[in-house]
Amino acid sequence: MDARGIIAKLRDKKSLSSAEINWFANGLADGQVSDAQGGAFAMAAFLNKLSTDERVALTLAMRDSGDVLKWDLPGPVIDKHSTGGIGDCVSLLLAPALAALGAYVPMVSGRGLGHTGGTLDKLEAIPGLKTEVSQERFHQIVSNVGTAIVSATGRIAPADKRLYAIRDVTGTVESIDLITASILSKKLAAGLDSLVLDVKVGSGAFMKTMDDAAELAQSLVSTANDAGCKTSALITDMNQPCAGSVGNALEVMEVMKVFSGQDVRSILAEVTCALGGELLVLAGMAKDAKQGAVQIGDTFSDGSAGERFSRMVVELGGPGDFVERWRDRLPAAPVIQDVFLPDEGYVAEIDGEALGLAVVRLGGGRLKGGDRIDPAVGLSEVALIGDPVGPKNPIAKIHAPSQEAAQAAITAVQRAYSLGNKQSELPPVIYRSVR
Known about the structure:
Elements: H1 3-11, H2 18-30, H3 35-48, H4 52-63, E1 78-82, H5 90-100, E2 105-109, H6 119-123, H7 135-145, E3 147-151, H8 158-168, H9 176-188, E4 194-201, H10 210-226, E5 230-237, H11 248-259, H12 267-282, H13 289-301, H14 304-315, H15 326-329, E6 335-339, E7 345-350, H16 352-364, E8 378-380, E9 388-389, E10 396-400, H17 403-415, E11 417-420, E12 430-434
Parallel strand pairs: 1-4, 2-3, 4-5
Antiparallel strand pairs: 5-12, 6-10, 7-9, 7-11, 8-10
Helix pairs in contact: 1-3, 2-4, 2-8, 4-9, 4-10, 5-12, 5-13, 5-14, 9-10, 12-13, 16-17
């Protein structure tokens, strides 16, 4: 086999065999396939699309290009993945809740991408906590605590890491087939029995329309199931932040409010319970999603999820008293300022991507690879659709490193809001499930 022949077949809309796809993925991982050849493959896949069998084969080939974790545990090994949004800190809630119910959640997560926040960046807002651990240590923490949220090693799906970088500079990031294989190759490398996917749709998501979100959800679910991992998805709203804050330490505060029973009726808690309910059904731990959602909520009320989170924080190097003293332990920005609009009205629309980018420019995300993140900056008390706002009712609080940065963010946040004269109908939190 050779790269040129495989690319030519894909270009000419001829079916690729699993062996050919496997050879190409290994070539990406070991350098036998050049960047130019990887780009040509990606563009051919983007333009001509992959068949169902080819998509499954690419997913498995990229998974198997590196380490695939194996577990011997007295409970199901399960996980959740989100396609990304703003104020989306569900993973920090859901993983400990599932662990409290007897599941094992080895969550290999990522950092911020574009306007969306990264789970690892949020978790590392906790002083002393490090998400880079050895594979042996990862196994130990999951076995002892029930969950660990860590960064991927270089040995997890290296073919995907290479192809992802190539896609980023060749205009092929948007390919549903390549997005599917990229997400699932990394998740399935964690050795999962079951997986639930949170596919976001709306102004703060990568998928802006329901048609695009539904296409991605169906592709992910069918591919994962065909690859041998029991999987379902929920399409959830991202026309406004999932949590009441956007920013790393500020979102950890939102998580702690749920763990401490202060905010169990929030959008954040509702999405978490719904996703957990789906996953418990897949794992055989609940008879239906509604019962599973109640079980997740109970771990917040009885404190068992917070206890698991505390144990994970300690195992990853964080403070032993974090759950008791989280308000004192998290970093705070030196400038905190309300944001007002000159006119009164009700929030009709929010440009979620603009809000996310405002936080990035404050220092809460990366404008380019290698940028340092300021964990303290962001937005809190964010007004949501239907809320009354105006000269006396703020739309958010800015948490900034300087007055100058705060002023620039204020302008950006103001532009992200559109008002109406009456309350708009609230968007549903959960649009539908895909199985």
